[in-house]
Amino acid sequence: MALNIIWVGFFIVAMIAAIIRFFFFEDYSVFERIVSSTFEMSEFAVMDIALPLSGVMILWLGIMNIGEKAGAIDYLSKIIGPFFSKLFPEIPKNHPANGQLVMNFAANMLGLDNAATPIGLKAMESLQQLNPNKEKASNAQIMFLALNTSGLTIIPITILAQRSIMGAENPTDIFVPLLITTFFSTLTAIIYVGFRQKLNIWNKTVIGWILGIVLLISGVVYAFSSLDSQTAFFVSKIGGNFLLFTVIMIFVGMGAYKRINVYEAFIDGAKDGFQTSIRILPYLVGMLVGIGVFRASGAMDAFAYGLEWFFSLFLSDTRFVDALPTALMKPLSGSGAKAMMVEAMKTFGADSFAGRLSCLFQGAADTTFYIVALYFGSVGIKKTRYAVTAGLIADLGGIIAAILIAYLFFG
After folding, report:
1. Could you say which DSSP state residue 383 is in?
2. C-alpha span between 409 and 359 (Å, rounded)
3. Can you give the pLDDT at residue 77?
């Protein structure tokens, strides 16, 4: 129901915005842009997302199947079990879903989106097996979606690379603020969903793990703060990929050690990759077309201008508004938000307040509507309950944290 309201809302608001632009601003090409965006986003969903994702999913679902048969996923489940049993009480102890969730979160934290998505889809399938109502999102699935949309990242490789390309004097100067921002976004997701599900998140286990994550982030911050910008960028670039390749070798090595047929295990897991890609296509096309129409109509620009006017009524310092288009676009489109981030750095300068804040917005959360459409679409969930709300609240927590932290670090 939530996705239906949002999707229809995109088209209604887009139509109103287009009519206003046509009659009052004499923008006679607005309807042409809207129609063009429907074709462009449909093609983008298939050619730029679904097809490339098919190959990646075939690879990683095969690797994950090796890990499951070799016992590596079960081992991860036992390690993370005490923590996940508090956040995901519906998942049985030592269930493979625990290990899959760990792998997904680890890949997201390392900024390895290509690996995180297929692993996440595999985790969603496991959660769907535990779901008693196959068309309605379970509590575990909602918590999983909320944590994914919160976008916890430790090594923001893409953002650092983009800042370097745009000529930032020190591309890594947003590294520490970004870590803090993403942490608050994730914490917001845990608190909100925990409250909605009446979970006991203020217990020793959860607090201990959260403090452990804080210490991990602090350690990464300390390690990177002692490096010059070029070395830090180099370490960020290769560190995550090295760790990911190590995981692959551990899975294959454990499979060989336990004398399973590693290649057959890979093929068995990989067979599901293409079918999953086909299954999610209608959901991706539908959501991306709605977002494209909303953006092409000028509704997004009007909303951003309205916010600038609103904040100027009672705030003397509205510099953060220049970066808000990135924050507003991020829940809708990752590529669109990236374009907004680049535009902000190009217009105001990579080392400007708006340029740096746009980078924090880009890393503070993930593409909520895309993730909901992708993951729920892959398992046929039609009733999303409060999953979208949880994702957007996590996004809002990240936006507020990014603004406050930007003023703290960059003045």
Report:
1. B
2. 13
3. 66
Looking from the CA of 265 toward its CB, the CA atoms found within 13 Å total: 19
Contact 201, 194 (CB under 8 A): yes
| pLDDT number for residue 371 | 87
- Kindly state the tokens that stand for 42: 């449909």
Please give the pLDDT value at position 56.
73
The answer to whether the CB of 59 falls within 8 A of the CB of 272 is: no
* Per-residue model confidence (pLDDT) at position 403: 92
What are the pLDDT digits (tens) for 110-155? Answer: 666 666 788 888 889 999 999 999 989 999 999 999 988 887 776 6
In the 8-state DSSP scheme, what is residue 171? G
> Where do the H-state alpha helices sit in 110-228?
113-130, 139-149, 157-165, 175-196, 204-225
For residue 108, give the nearest of 149, 76, 142, 55 by alpha carbon. Answer: 149
pLDDT value for 305: 80
Sign of the C-alpha dihedral computed for residues 73, 74, 78 and 82 taken in this order: positive
Rounded Cα distance, 279 and 50, in Å: 10
At 330, phi and psi to the nearest 5?
-55, -45
Query: How far is 308 from 57, CA to CA, in rounded Å?
Result: 41
Distances (CA, A) of 70 to 95, 108, 263: 15, 23, 12
**Tokens representing 18?**
């287009």
Residue 346 CA neighbour count, 13 Å, CB half: 8
SS3 label, residue 135? coil
CA atoms of 297 and 20, how far apart (whole Å): 10
Structure tokens at 66: 């090796």
- pLDDT score recorded for residue 21: 92
What integer pLDDT is reported at residue 29 of this predicted model?
93
Cβ pair 176, 405 in contact under 8 A: no
The neighbour count for residue 7, using CB atoms within 10 Å, is 17
**Inter-residue contact 233 to 165 (CB < 8 Å):** no
Residue ranges, the chain, pLDDT below 70: 1-3, 53, 73, 76-77, 81, 110-115, 154-155, 157-158, 221, 224-230, 232-241, 243-244
